[in-house]
Design brief:
This protein has twelve helices and four strands. The chain is mainly alpha-helical and 288 residues long. Strands 1, 2, 3 and 4 form a four-stranded antiparallel beta sheet that branches. It is globular and about 60 Å long.
Length: 288
């Protein structure tokens, strides 16, 4: 529902990704054409013309161990973020590094922004979410979603929707209450409701204690699902990507059961949610 979607932050996140893809590719292209092949090249953060930069310009993609972490390289030059930082992941983020390399290897002729979810979420963690002021802004934004959380607004009709709410939302609400010892209220109207202040304080502290990887995953998952609690459960490994996507799609699933699926709309939206939630889950996965 529009009144619960908080489209402003979600759109801001989308715009950030679209603008920075051009900057990202421009930076990588400049590094690739630098004179010395043995260095990553200077940091270049300005945007170049999209028509000349959104093209594949490298031949090989590799993963290198460097500075106690992993970097993805294009023709032996390390990827950098839109802000010019080397995109380096800790050793335990081996899965994320592998997926980033796979994203760039699978770019055939023209780069597609939607096909770089791991790259963009990792760059977000490195560029922005180590800064305390930005972290505080993100925390406040995410807490706004708690007051309008999708799974806290229930309907008593039609029956298929009620059944889906009980199946996907009620256990998740109980998990949050028990895990964090908080009260979470459920409403039947979207007007003028908020969660208890103690609940906001406790869950806000949970977000504040997240490392940059977890916070980036939490931010993306919240914007995708329009639910603070679904995102939290995904980041804390209580829900799988499939379970999180199903919980986020309860209302749509009820409509599909009643009216049928709109081809190239419902299915595309669901797969896109899977891709974005998958990047969040993979970013917080640790491998030893």
């Amino acid at each position: 529902m529009l009144s619960r979607s908080l489209l402003g932050p979600a759109r801001a996140s989308s715009v950030w990704s679209e603008l920075n893809l051009t900057r990202y590719v421009a930076l990588s292209r400049r590094q690739h054409t630098a004179t010395s092949p043995s260095h990553d090249g200077p940091a270049v953060s300005e945007s170049n013309r999209a028509e000349t930069t959104l093209k594949r310009f490298w031949k090989s993609v590799d993963i290198e161990s460097r500075d106690s972490g992993f970097v993805v390289t294009l023709d032996k030059r390390a990827l950098k973020t839109p802000s010019g930082n080397t995109l380096i992941l800790p050793k335990e983020k081996r899965l994320a590094a592998t997926l980033i390399a796979n994203e760039w290897e699978n770019q055939e002729k023209f780069l597609k922004q939607h096909a770089l979810p791991m790259t963009s979420i990792t760059a977000r963690a490195i560029d922005a979410l180590q800064d305390e002021a930005t972290r505080a802004q993100v925390q406040a934004s995410l807490l706004n979603y708690l007051d309008t959380d999708t799974i806290c607004f229930h309907h008593d009709d039609p029956p298929p929707l009620v059944d889906l709410q009980k199946k996907h939302w009620d256990p998740l609400l109980e998990w949050a209450r028990m895990t964090y010892d908080v009260e979470i209220q459920v409403f039947n109207s979207v007007l003028f409701h908020s969660q208890p202040e103690r609940t906001r304080k406790i869950l806000g502290d949970v977000v504040a204690q997240m490392d940059p990887w977890e916070m980036a995953a939490m931010e993306r998952a919240t914007y995708v699902t329009k639910s603070f609690l679904i995102a939290l459960a995904l980041v804390k490994r209580h829900l799988t990507v499939e379970e999180a996507a199903q919980a986020a799609q309860v209302e749509v699933s009820s409509q599909i059961q009643r009216w049928g699926e709109v081809e190239d709309t419902h299915d595309v939206d669901f797969h896109d949610a899977h891709r974005q939630l998958g990047s969040s889950a993979c970013l917080v996965t640790k491998m030893t």
